[in-house]
Amino acid sequence: MLYPIARSILFKLDAEHAHEVTLKGLRRAYKTGLLHFTMGSPPKSKPVECMGLTFPNAVGLAAGLDKEGNCIDALGSLGFGFVEIGTITPKPQDGNPQPRLFRIVEEKAIINRMGFNNPGIEKGVENVKSAKNFKGIVGFNIGKNKVTPNENAIDDYLITLRSAYPVADYVAVNISSPNTPGLRDLQSAESTARLIETLKSEQAKLQAEHGKYVPLVLKVAPDLEDQHIKDLARVFLETGLDGLITNNTTISREAVADYTLAEQAGGLSGGPLTARSLDVLKAFKAEVGDKLPIISVGGIMTPEDATARLDAGASLVQLYTGFVYGGPPFLHKTLKKVGQRD
């Protein structure tokens, strides 16, 4: 009952301001115990073994909501089995000029061109270390700074990987955001192969140094042609990638073409991405089979959407826009539905 009221108030605010108010409110409510009092205990769901890790449940929070990693305990208390923070870059970054976040409420959609606004990897690591109570899995979503040219992108990914490795449970490599100029060019099969090979080599060194294995996953865009999916799937298997996230936001505006906000640049998420995200999942699953675990995200707006992804072969799912529109009640309904599937 409380969230619809809270949402009606938050949605009267600018989208980015509402985002900031929500995270600040979550942190305060968690620290005072009010969050548990108002939301109660989340439904139980079976743990999932994936990439050598034990996830408390199959439902996680996608990168982009907790960019700084300073809300992990609060979000975890709501029931998320894993929280992916970021995208984090080597140096702090302000992101793109405001306004840069827009709602298309009629379609339960969001357009964002945030541009990797984040406090930098050192602060991100510090924030994760401060999360003392979350018993789930923490992923670091890493990217390159806007000012770093593509030919030097690998240096940024290596910096963030090295810094995140000691505290991360897994590291997600973001080469698919539409909001950093030229970033998606790194998704060519040849560029992707070079990037993964370099990071896997560094991963081996870090494993020896820290005495633990931190899986490397890669997040792809939904705007891939069939042959591109086949080529990337081959690269992922050949390079020994540990996991795959399908998928990021879309640059397509076909589903929202009738809305004025469709003219805004950025990535589109939410309801308009539901069908495409499922198709991309199925396409990659057809290529990699059970050899590569897949985390499915994008357009999961109902509990049934989540179970459809799991039924289609995803090992785990992540929420973002569905959580923005549905809040903790939506998460709890999804956990219950996933638990019934078990």
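(the above was protein one; protein two follows)
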Amino acid sequence: MKKILVTGALGQIGSELSHEFNARYGNENVIVSDVMVDTKGIYPENVFEKVDVTDVDGLEKIIKRHNIDTIIHLAAILSARGEQDPELAWHINIDGLLNVIRLSIKHNIDRLMVPSSIAVFGPQSTLYNAPQETILKPNTMYGITKVTGELLADYYYKKYNLDFRGIRYPGIISHKTMPGGGTTDYAVEIFYEALKTGHYTCFLSSEACLPMMYMPDCVRATIELLEADRTSLKHRGDYNVGAMSFTPEDQAAEIRKYLPNFTIDYQPDFRREIAKYWPASVDDSSACADWGWRPQYNLEMTVKDMLVNVAKKLEIDFKI
């Protein structure tokens, strides 16, 4: 890897992954892009390119201008927003992906990484310890696009030898950048409300158990798979990765260890129906065997670190 292009770099994952790339590969070798302009100055040290991934000509100019050989394609419409505008979700998530794939083949891109998601699972999938290979019939447009992406990864690897890699991300928890329209966003929002108001109204039900991962583990998993020897990989765009699983009530109980007066109530909306058929846990033995995946953060460690960092962000005096 010599020159890396990150699409969707202003998003929750992209904003932290790109900075880790800077530290690892040198900021002069990391080109960041998004459909929006970097008005907050997140990337003062990088070349930033404004581009819509559905604009194939604009993407190609960036690839050629910077001699890109590795692409991390994070630009996407997430689950909750995707249900509000399914045609837009298909357009961005599939038409944009196909542009990236075509250009990767045309310009001999060495490595393409595209995230998948636990949204690929559906009503007919196993809800506990969901296996690496199982029935995938999701009931959301976001999930449909992610299953399509996984199938395209296999197809283009076999037909064109495109080194296409991907992880089925669980819900991601982070404090540096807010998530943008996902079904697991409550797990981040809860920290802000706990510290600001002492109360949170959750859009999922109290017993909605879902796989989650803290951002440091997410970044590390992505880099480990990106750098793995391709000969060791038995899967392409669909690796399960696990870290922890919990319900909103579990998370609230952990927060109360540090904020005893914190309260939570529940007003489930359409996102509860989305989460209803996502697995409570996943079998990540393939990732463990093929590229040595091991999580480092559990719920207790995540809650402590999130409370400290969100309090700093909100300029609230808080100590563990």
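Reviewer note on protein two: The radius of gyration is 19 Å.
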